[in-house]
Fold each of these.
Amino acid sequence: MGPTAARMLARSSEVDRFVLAAWEQSVVPAQRLRSCVFAVGGYGRQELFPYSDIDLLILEEPNTFVAGELSEFLRVLWDGGFRASHSVHTVADCKRISPGNVEFSISLLDRRFLTGNTALAKSCEDVCRKPPNDLAAELARMTDRRHERFQHTIQHLEPDMKDTCGGLRDLNTIRWFAKLGVEAAPDLEAESEVLFAIRWALHVHAGRDQNVLRFEEQDALSDTPESWMRIYFRQARRIYACCRELKERVLDRRPGLVGTFFESRSKLSNSEFTVSREQILLRHPAAFQTDPGATHRLFVFQARHGLRLARDTQKRITATPQWTWQEWRTLLELPHAAIALRAMAETGFLNTQLPEWEHIDCLVVRDFYHRYTVDEHTMIALEGLESLGFEEAQFGALWLNCDTKPLLRFALLLHDIGKGMGGDHDARAVAIAQEVGGRIGIPAEDLSVIERLIGEHLFLSTLISTRDVGDPEVAAQAAHRMETKEYLGMLTLLTIADSSAVFPGAMTTWRRTQLWHAHTAIERELTKELEDDRIASPPDVSGAMAEFAKGFPTRYWFRTTDGDRALHLSLSTAALHIGVACDLRRRQDDWQLIVVAQDRPRLLADLAGTLASFGMNILKAEAFGNARQEVLDLFVFTDPVRTLELNPPIVNEVKEAIRRVVLGKETAERLLRRRSKPNIRYRMQIDTVLRFDNETSQHATLLELQAQDRPGLLYDVARTISEQGCEIDTVLLHTEGQRAVDVFYLRSGGAKLLPERMEQLTENLRQAMAN
């Protein structure tokens, strides 16, 4: 027994004495004669942390429960500083699984008799000795739903010690499965002691029942939090692996069509491997000790069929000579390569083939943007790449038609390998790839592509966040860099896989659309010339539409559909009569605001401030001006607390506020003042960076801004720019955790900014953002 387990046992014994005394003191003799008390849950297991609840089961004889007679007992416990969580049941309740309350039946597995009617307690023991038949299946389903909440991974940077994959709930689940006869519990004393110690320290530090290991607590509890967290993840890894296998074994005991499916999958067995219940077992385990090529054939078999490795199979995997590139390529061209790579990582085999993997194994890199450890981010990216094949269009077709999957997968496997080693991790990753390529014999031509993908893996992501891909000059420069459509396709696939693996929902519909627009614009530039910068005569249209579109930048026509342009024209017609017209609608996972009005100074800033006053998080702002001095402002934004979705009338409030601000009947300043400031519990130190670029665009100066994100930031910046007599064509906004990365396309008097204007603007912007 570890030291923390001993402390928990001592605390449980202390609580036992208090509970027994409170029962004798506060419960009348008649009540004690017809009831008994069990400790359940963590208290029943004698695993009490400093601020754990005291879980009690009060068993009563049928029809004898009197609520008032227990109130004094519970009051004494609460007055004694113990949070009592109790339930009252009869022995009959213990015989069956309670619908909607499976937790009660599971809690009985940890029951421990404390005091009361011994005959009643014996009846309960007799009933509970054989749990309900379906309890193991209910536990497995409940565990699977919990694992799904945490994306089936242990490696969250701020893990919930209790409920996350590999946490204490999984440790208890393994024990519960053992009590239900699924399989004897393995020896996990070392792993459990680590988790016990961390949760104990969390409770002491927080002074309450705190289970989420946030960055603040990591800093407070360890002088080397990154190393400390690696220890935690490596212990949690085995707990999760054991729990997952037991869960899946129980879930696989299903008849009917599922059983037929498993039977058909078993036909995949060959002379080396047996497939049973979606798991690969070895026909000749001893061969693994004498045949170095057997392990490679195992992982190739797994990558071809997408099956799991049985636990016994995992235990027999041993180190082998490092694979050649041909062996790597054989695995990486198969449809389910990601599941094999994950199995290689979980068994430690990947470390033997790529010793450099140790640099990122369970590595925590804090940027308040990524959610997972570096190695888990890589595995999720590889799995996401394969999931693209299930899409019907665009990225799915790009993946299915990719002829260089092994190169792309190997580049993705190594793209973050330089993290945790200091310096420029991208450059370090390229150097590591070069070392690995020379060691395993990657041909120079293939290695050059892999190195280039790693070195440029952030290029497209940065491009769509900081440049207007509808600008012909931007597309031309990007096309020159890509050189070929094939390389562009590979980098696009790597980008969507990498970006999607940052955290669930990171690759929003808007960002996916922006990436596809970038791919399309660059591909078009690689194959044909673009049209003039400004629309003089729209193609194939006439009349009102031609008059409306005249003078818009060419990118407007490429970026909009016939339906979009019809909506914009109808707004323009309405704006002629009332001075402003707007459309606000929800899309898949964001919102879009379109405003048409006569152009005026600070218009974009005022619109941004109005949206910010309602708590909206603006992703992009774009302004299109036509020849008749109309401006079409387009905003894409998210609604972080679902205000508009949950309160539909507020949609009309936003639209009315927009109209009033445009017409000068309301000010964005007044609207912003009414919004309360958010409470950020842990603020990163982010320096403000301002940089001007007069080279990228032929017609505008780019202002690149990085700063601490806050409500109203875009309004303050856009207002300051307008006050300096500058026009804003386009704004691209991207937020990484607490860091705002914004790019503004600016002009003054229809031309690029002069150096003296840039200098003055820099000074004024720093003052505005400091307020």
Note: The domain at 3-128 is CATH 3.30.460.10 (Beta Polymerase; domain 2).
Amino acid sequence: MLLLCVAAATQLESVPSTDLLAGSRSEIAKATSDLTDQFGQDPIAISLEADLSSTLAPGALTSLLSMEGRLNQLKGVKAVYGPGTFINQTVVQTERIVKQQLGAVGRQADAAEAAAVKAAQARGDSPAQVAAAKKAAFDATVGTKGKELQELLVRFGSVGLPGLANANFVKTLVFGAGIEPKQRFKWLFPDAEHALILVRPDPGVSGPDMLALGKQIRRVVTQTKLGDAKVEIAGLPLLAAGLERETRAEILRLAPIAGVAMLLLLLLVLRRRRGRLAALALALGSLGLTLGLSLPLGLGLTVSTVAALPVILGLGLDFAVQLQARYWLERADGLAPDVAARAAREGLQPTLLLAAGAMAAGFLVLMVGPVPLIDRLGAVLAIGVLSAVAVALLVGPALLVALDRGPVKPLALPGGDRLVRFSPAPIVIAVVVGLAVAGLVVSDRVDLQSDISQLAPSNLEQLKDTQAFQREIGTSGQISVAVRATNVTDPAVLTWLGEVARKAQSVDKRLSAGPNLADLVTGGDPTAQINRSGTQAMMKLLPPYFLDAVVSKDRRTAELTYGVPFVSVDEQGRIARRIDDLLKNPPAGVSASVAGLVAESANSTRQLDRSRPWLLLLAAGVVGAILFAFWRDWRRVALVLAPALLAAGLSSLVLALSGVTLSPLAAALEPLVLAIGLEFGMLLDMSFRQARAAGRSPAEARAIATRDIGGAVGLSAATVAVGFAVLGASRLPLLAQLGWLVAAELVVCLVVAVLIVPMVSERMAPKVRAEGSPSAGRTRPGARPSKQEVPT
């Protein structure tokens, strides 16, 4: 069965982890989707560390140009932007404009160039010598007529006639009159010792194909002679793909660990009891059914799926243990196997169905959150709990009968007699409740973070590459600005774009501006007036290859990009919000929004941070409303919810005081514990009421609930807690944090439930109407007349 579960998991399609950190309903998400469709995914960057004078030497430029051409031909690559392509495209486009202006002389220059190149190649000249011969032929043919274009060439940022072998042209193009690269070319030349090559993958490339693309890129770079340049290759697409691979591998790691952990738990707690592994078989069936349903529902294989699977195994074991414990009680009372199985199902079915429905509703509350990572977790858990109760009630009785080899000693809670006598002073209860309320109040002070690197194991190769690249270049991702208009090349739009670009630089001096259409049109001169004729002239001069990097072919969408400084995720979010504030008053007919993963995840996490305390209250409200609809008793609803709410409040207080930073997945901590923990209170409340219905006194009913059902509840809580604790063994920090936190909080919830629910039920008993049950007409095994008959 376990192998079938794993096989089902491997059939689920992976969902990029980057998609899970950003909500799909926001304006930022829509803008990001538009830019990805138009310009490709965030780039895979190749950093070359060497003095730019050597990187831009004629021979090195020729090698770079060849390498960039091969990169551009790789499957899955939308575009490549690098020094060789940049300078070569500038040369080609400028030569084309020059020859158009020269007319017949230009055609003569073409013929002279072709002849010079042919002769140089016949002599066996080097590429640099061939380029020099070509330029000499052009100069000799054109003569002084080429000077007529000097003003346009100077405006574009070059000196002399263009050519890869023209050192003055290359130097002036990249550096201008200074020793540092021009500000508007920082996206290709961050400083005088670094050059970047940006490979933008196609929108549809993800998972294994992205990792394969990364290997091909590295192979091409390795095969290119780059002198003494130090090379770094990294990018968010590669990190996300590496994390997807780790996610799938984590299922293969955690599934056996979870299975063994549950097996050891059953062997330890149910020692010397026959049929003790029936519950594990039912739990595995629940897991298989959940995975089978996830496939047609399109939930995919995500970090959330991995987080949910051990928990679903625990929940499946929880329901199965409750059924088996009740079955053993019925068999100890002398019933035949088939009658005991039917009585166990009838006695538990109303409570388990109601508990499962309320738990599923509590899990589904997570789907109102702004982060898909949480949505998926809620959806998978909701399917899992419904699968668990269905398997337990439909398959469980028949399996228990088939494995029955005679009566088995029922479960009992160790130290039950002492717990029955436990009665804390009112002041102690008041202090605990006060601390829990304080924790709920300050829960919004627990910080969240959305750094994708926190999802990945520290030894992941792609993570190490990304961190090394970030330290080398000083940037950690990019923020984009999506601008949409009927025609983004309209002078009014370009003027506004230029103003936004200049103001964005004042947001943080460490921002590294990417290509900007307004900057390209003005040649980087902030004082230049943008008019229609000048714009058209520059648009003709600019290489189409680079126009495609900043403006869509239909001229309706433009992109501005900014390299984000290597700072904390919180600070990146503040930078994104400040840039977004600059976009509030665009010209008529223009819409603009920040975009990209940094902006998306910061926005989603900020919304999740604001909504996190309300998720718990919403879950409590939804679950409470469902229970009230069946019970019509608010006191009873409050009683079964109290353990989970107290545990949530106390844990929130500890987290707030300790300064722990939660991952987005751990933001679901309190609603998860509420949804799972309410079952503990419901089962104890059910036991107390059924004992009262059988004629037992409040004190006897408390003892029965604490000793008999408390043991089963304790084992149920242990199975779910172990399921979460298994996540603590994950190599993914996000999963490990969630696992340990929920496991610890469930233990607190169990202790509070066992101590509080029977005690408060006893005190409320005079005001509580005894309820009938399917077994009320006979003596219940839990309502035996003497203490000696109660198992210990």
Note: The first strand starts at residue 44 and ends at 49.
Amino acid sequence: MKQFLFFLLALCIFSGTASAQFDLNAPVPVDPEVRTGVLDNGMTYYIRHNQEPKERASFYIIQNVGGILEDDSQDGLAHFLEHMAFNGTKHFPGKGVISSLEKHGIAFGRNINAYTAQDETVYNISNVPVAPNGLMDTCLLILHDWSNYLLLEEEEIDAERGVISEEWRTRRDAGFRTRNQMMPALLNNSKYGERDVIGELDVIKGFEYDELRRFYHDWYRTDLQAIAVVGDFDADEMEKKVIELFSKIPAVDNPKERYEVMVEPKAETTFKLALDKENPQSSVALYVRHQAEAAADKNHNTLKTNYMRSLIKSMISTRINELLQKGNPPFINGSVGFSDYPRTVSLMSINATAKENEEAKAFEAILTEVERVKRYGFTEGELERMKAQMQMGYENYYKQRDKISHDSYCKEIASLYLENVPMPGIEYEFKFAQAIIPAITTEELKAYFNSMYTQENRVIIVTGPEKEGVKHLNKAEALAIVEKVENNAAITAYVDEAVSSSLVEELPVEGKVVSERALPEFDAFEWTLNNNTKVVYRYANYNKNQVALSSYSKGGSSLYDVADLPSASMASDFIPAFGIGNYDAVALQKALTGKNAKVGFDISGLSESISGSSRTQDFETMMQLAYLHFEQPRFDEEAYNALMARYMAYVANMGDNPKKIMQDSISQIRSNYHERNLIFGTEYLEKVSFDRMEEIYKERISNAADFTFFIVGDIEKEVAKEMAAKYLGAISSNDERENWRDNNVNGPEGVTKKTIPVKLSEPKATVQIYYNGDLDYTPENRIGLSFISAVLRLRYTESIREKEGGTYGVGVNASTSHYPQSEGTVAIQFDCDPDRANDLIPLVYAEIDKLIKSGATIEDLDKTRKNILKSRAESKEQNNYWMSNIRSYYVNGINMTLAENYEDVVEGMSPKDIKKLAKKFFKKADKIEVVFVPAED
């Protein structure tokens, strides 16, 4: 006891001393590894050397410009301008930006992208190979052109109108429409509340060319731009290149003021009811609006405030989760949090997703938890646990500092430039966190919480379905609930119950390794344990201080009749809410305080598995959790009933959701309406049985000898061997071995075409096309089908998106499966104007016919080849590369780490190979074409 008290005293002294090292009111220094400067023309630059991923670099241009700066006649043109940056620049006319990069394996969408927001526009070229001579210079020149040399040709502008019109159409869902209703109320009818970034369709289709050019000239200028380049290069050389190239761009004469839009305060509470016919859920939210901290005022206190916000959010979340575990939960989900959006606003948000016609109950319940914090704050036990979790997170991040990606740094730089968000570097912030977090008190947190939960600038927003029989809160009722809770004298302080942290008291047997086999092709080892369990281990420290666990056992839900499928499939959703061993879910979270270890399970169609992850020092805890999942699973009927009530409420209005209707229709058609293909909804949940779920779980997650376990990560062999033997070797086993059962769930044969009307608020057609056919599970076929899908994406981007302006994008995905039959699937999907669907669908088939007749062009093949090889090289620097490949080898019998099964196949892929595979697959594959169209009223 004396030692423990001494430790606490020492910790307090250390925390006080460490805190004194930092002046909280002082500015935060910028990461010393970042080179930064401001050119004579006002442009800022940031350069940083980094090695994740190796031999790669990322290039960003960050514009302190967004939709909020548009005139009324320019509504949506900031976003339109972003698109035009890929449609012709001084040095890269036409589609030159994209084509120049894609031939080096830098894919549009994945590696080349941009976004526009209210206050900012950011372009990126990510994970560029540094080796090709002149490629980094090309990327710099593209950023240079984006800054000041867009061509903005009238033909290209007109072509892009169609693309953006289709993006506008694609985004018009219930969430978007609801947001447009609520934002004016939330942001007090300011310009932020009235505008959305994509703009209005009449402007997109009809603006004058000079309006776009005027916005470009007014706002895309050097004093509002920053260049960020991070990667595996010589920083001295890169800095010289940036200074030389970007200094040549002239500054704009007499620049317009880069103004900020303020949201005016409002003393009385605003109320808004925002309904939509397609919204499946009701929710009630109370927002408290504050003026955000000015960029110039951000300092060390900003970092501390972020810690405090995170602690508060986590502790309230834990309380809410506890509330949801028992009885009849008052809401489906609830949350309390803080955010800074838009730039000039700081929001406290209190939200509850309500059961149908129970918005009042949900609102009162979530406000009661807020009032409990307001009056009594948090307990010392709660705070210490959350501090431990937060410090553990920083420690793990610090140990992983060599794996921080180029793009992560670039995004930090963007926040630094745009809003002066502190970026001191992980070493500095780790030390700061070590000093500050332990010293944060419950009194500070309560004071901060109450400073945010004020009476002024409140906004209550009720959202939900516009549907007969569903009643929503009105303003008077909502305000009455607020008053009722604030005057409720019966609200008591939260009681925090302490728990033991010992997960496994005693093991029934002492497990041991009885044989070891080397796997030189993977630099791994296979151990057989005393209970005949197989464990495969490989050391990998690409991701330091991380260890992963996976497993595989044949069987899954395939072994059960139709009546049992809901109970089997929902087990992985319900059972984690029951806890494990002697701990319910709430107690388990407390018992794992300060540890980073988690284990879950899955029962899929053909198999079951236990998987998990941990820090190196928490590896034993992960092994204990794996053991408990087999030997001491927990089944809590009260928690089951509580979660089932929430699920039932969640699905109540899903049947009216167009996306759900489409998803279910496709699922049924693709399975040829097989009885085992059940639709998720109320009837499905009614078939779930608590007792049967328990029986199925114990049947599937049992008999360790029927499982093969895989351990990959930063854990020494002898430690992994000892812990695996101790815990996995103690799991019960027998001589029975199972296999999956083929229930012959197959799609329709031949060609299936359907047009399905769906009630939609916005006119839109959704086209979905599927090819499914026999295909041997070989490296050549698997990689070849990946080539085909990638080439089709390139072709459809050019023909359907760019040339026709028919859609925002065509999704193409290819997959292969080994069991129960070896087959391949190619799925193609896009949204479009209903009047154009019949014109665009033939273009899909035309590109497939070209592959069958001629194969792919050399240019498209080379783009795809380089992108695949680039991604492969990057993936090899991750622990998961070895986990997925070793596991796949045991399941499918093919070692995909061998060059002969991957790199050699990719390098050798020819137009003739694509032609041969396309002909073999598409000619014999079954085809499904479904077009969802707006239903007539």
Note: Residues 1-18 have pLDDT under 50 and may be disordered.
